Amino acid sequence: MKALKRAHPIVAFTYFLGLLLLAPFSRHPWMTGIQIVCLCLLYLYHNRSLKKLLPFIGLIMIVAVTNPLFVQRGRTILYANEHLRVTKEALLYGIHYGCVLVNLLLVFSIFNYYIKKEQWIYLSGQLFPKLGVVTSMAFGLIPRYQKHAKKIVKTRKSLKSEHAVQRVMNTVSMETTWAFESSMDQLDSMNARGYGIGKRTHFHLFVWERKDWIHMTEIVILTVLNLWAYTHYYSRFFFYPMIIMPVFQTRDMIWMVLMGLQFLLPCLWKENFHVRN
Question: How far is CA 11 from CA 7, 14, 119, 215, 274, in A?
Answer without folding.
Answer: 6, 5, 11, 7, 17
